[in-house]
Predict the structure.
Amino acid sequence: MKKLTGSLTLVALLFLFSASPAFAHTHLDTSDPEEGSTVTEALDRITLYFETVIEESAVMELHAEDGTAITLDNLTVHDDTFSADVTEPLENGTYTISWDIIGVDGHPMEDSISFEVDIEEAAVEDQEEENTEAAEDTSGEQTEENEAASESDVQETAVDDTNSNTMLITILVIAIVAIVVIVLLKRKK
Ligand SMILES: [Cu+2]
């Protein structure tokens, strides 16, 4: 009889903890990209829309299907929306957005959604070029001149340097040989 009472109490407690507060739990309302959707253009920002206001301590992660974490930046909570920048171009495949938020009732809520990335090859290359340019622009250590110089210019400069070095060495060798010859000729006299 004690066992039965204990079991009933346990069931009652489980019910209280699981079912009852569920009315107040903060779930995901919708998102961009949406659950199960296919993204066909470069994705640079993820936005989650929750049912209620959430606390600012929210955490979001993005993982590729092989488990690789893609770095998210600029995580921003604004009332019931939670967004983050995707810092690198996503290769085609399945991705999972997971979050850990605290809803309006103070309950931590963890969940995740998945979406597909399916971008045509050409579009991917364009995006990579854009990102390379963006990376050059944001590099604060480079001087303005360096920033303006394209890769081919840099290569040309390198080739020019090599050529002028070769020229210098050639001139030096000729000069040394000439001096040695002059010295030897003078000794012969
Ligand atoms: Cu709750």
In short: Confidence is low (pLDDT under 50) at residues 140-154.
